[in-house]
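Bug #77: duplicate submission created two jobs. Keeping one. Sequence:
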Amino acid sequence: MLALGCDQGGYSLMQEVIKYLDEKGIEYKNCGTFSEDPVDYPVYARKVVKEIQSGACDKGILICGTGIGISIAANRYKGIRAALCGDCFSAEATRLHNDANILAMGARVTGPGLGVKIVETFLNTPFSGAERHARRVRLIDEPGEDE
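Kept job's structure:
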């Protein structure tokens, strides 16, 4: 299952993503927002993160105006590897190499057609599982020496 979250800046692109997911029969949980009324993006990042951390969802999509703030907010949490992607190559590489579990996008910098292609690439690309990449993911997920 996929968890979705956005702020008002990402609402329009999220609607396009939802159309794509519905067309493909991909299950998702929409964590909001549900309109273009102003909201705080960290709230929606946290909702998506909690769905992943609980095991209810295995991946997520977060969208704000640029994708920057919402990805920063998501990456604060243990076990989360949110990748801001504005092209298909990055979406493929972050799944193959980083086992990213959240795709972040910016609706003000990524058009709907490209946004849907990025989502499709992210969802259809598996983690490579190569030892060098798996080792790096483990290093990302391990607490630092000062933690």
